[in-house]
Amino acid sequence: MRNEKIRDVISDYNEEALFADGFDEAIEGVIRQAGGNYLICYSYDKCVEVLVKQGLSHEEAVENMEFNVVSAYLGEHTPVFLEKFTE
Questions:
Q1: pLDDT tens digits for 27-63?
Q2: Which residues pair with 27 in a beta bridge?
Q3: Domain ranges in the chain?
């Protein structure tokens, strides 16, 4: 299930949910926020991979994620980014 189909399914949960442009392949699913909102959840690592595929170094991709994506709060429907713990 990709791109438009994913967007349609997520819109069924929350039609006001915001997407991070260009990162559809990094969508993990939705999270449920206490109080009601369903928010789109992206894999942070997969987002970095998307940026590396676009030509950024790993370090540049992480910097871009931190300053231009993760820190871009757009209100209560802003997507979230999952960072998995590693050993």
A1: 998 898 777 788 999 999 999 999 999 999 999 999 9
A2: 42
A3: 3-79
